[in-house]
């Protein structure tokens, strides 16, 4: 398993932007990278996923048009660009990685490696 490290979280006003990064040596060797978030007292839920080779993406309806997932295989980094942030986006954001070619983005059990998370707070 690869150690994943998230960064880029912080405090931002509503309507603002943040870019999260997920770094890990060999991350490009996984089939897909996913971004998940966890609200207090809730289970971790999928936000967006991307396959490392073809760049096929998935977005949860709640973030479509606002968030963009990307990856840089040469740098072994995946990104989540978050625009027009809303207070309801406040959560801990995690990245996960999976080798499973048949993975389903919204099924966190399909993911093999996880980072420790980065806090995002959207508040005025």
Summarize the structure.
This protein has 124 residues and is mainly beta. Helix content is 0%, strand content 45%.
What does this protein structure show overall?
This protein is mostly beta strands and about 120 residues long. The protein has strands at about 5, 10, 20-25, 30-40, 45-50, 55-60, 65-70, 75-80, 90-100, 115, 120. The strands form 2 sheets. Strands 2, 4, 5, 6, 9, 10 and 11 form a 7-stranded mixed β-sheet that branches. The relative contact order is 0.32. The mean pLDDT is about 95.
Q: Give the topology string: H per helix, E per strand.
A: EEEEEEEEEEE
- Computed over alpha carbons, the radius of gyration is 13 Å
Largest sheet: 7 strands, mixed
Q: What's the helical proportion of residues?
A: under 10%
Span between termini: 39 Å
Helical region count? 0
User: Which class of secondary structure composition applies to the elements?
Assistant: mainly beta
Residue ranges: pLDDT <50 for 5 or more in a row?
none
Task: Give the percentage of residues in beta strands.
Answer: over 45%
Approximate shape: globular
The count of β-strands is 11
Average pLDDT level: 96
């Amino acid at each position: 398993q690869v150690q994943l490290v998230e960064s880029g979280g912080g405090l931002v006003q509503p309507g603002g932007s943040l870019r999260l990064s997920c770094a890990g040596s060999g991350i490009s060797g996984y089939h897909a990278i996913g971004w998940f978030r966890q609200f207090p007292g809730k289970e971790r839920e999928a936000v967006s996923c991307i396959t490392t080779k073809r760049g096929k993406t998935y977005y949860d309806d709640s973030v479509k048009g606002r968030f963009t997932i990307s990856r840089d295989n040469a740098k072994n980094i995946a990104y989540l660009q978050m625009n027009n942030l809303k207070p309801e986006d406040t959560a801990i954001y995690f990245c996960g990685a999976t080798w499973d070619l048949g993975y389903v983005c919204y099924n966190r059990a399909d993911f093999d490696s996880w980072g420790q998370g980065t806090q995002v707070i959207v508040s005025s």
